[in-house]
Amino acid sequence: MNVTLLAIAGSVIVLGLASYAGYLLLQLKKQKELQLQQQKLAIEKRNANIFESVNVLCLAGIQEQCDLSEISIRLYNIMDYVQGEERVDFDQEYPATSELFHIVKDMARGEARQELAKQQRMKQNLERHKAESRLQQDITEELKRLQKKVKPLNNQINIQMI
């Protein structure tokens, strides 16, 4: 009789612990799914911010409000931060912009450019202008294509003041 009671009590305890372990595993699965969902939303939000900036840069380039070399540097670097399925192989999909980036990426900019000797600065200007004029048409087309590509991916809500 004692052995039977102990076996029943042991079985109840084991069944209770097994049920609790199953419950904990289910909670862990739900938590992991929630974490993945939150991570996906964070990536989408980050990409939306990046695509908003890319859209503005493309518009500035298309309207010739900024040097193409500056735009190529900014676009190439900012698109490197895109995550997930929207990630772009910039060298492959936008070869003209990528080529200009690789030509001008090591040239002095800002204060470093002002510190260069005048002859060196003129040499860099000439090289940059040659590359820009040679690639201008292709880069403008790529900017239009890139702008069309990122516009539908930008999930930000536009709020307008009335």
Automatic annotation (TrEMBL):
Please name the InterPro entries in this protein's record. Answer: DUF2489 (IPR019617)
Ranges for domain DUF2489: 14-146
**TM ranges:** 6-26
Q: Which residues form a coiled coil?
A: 109-156
Q: Keywords assigned by UniProt? A: Coiled coil, Membrane, Transmembrane, Transmembrane helix
Indicate what this protein is called per its UniProt record.
DUF2489 domain-containing protein
Q: What species was this sequence derived from?
A: Vibrio orientalis CIP 102891 = ATCC 33934
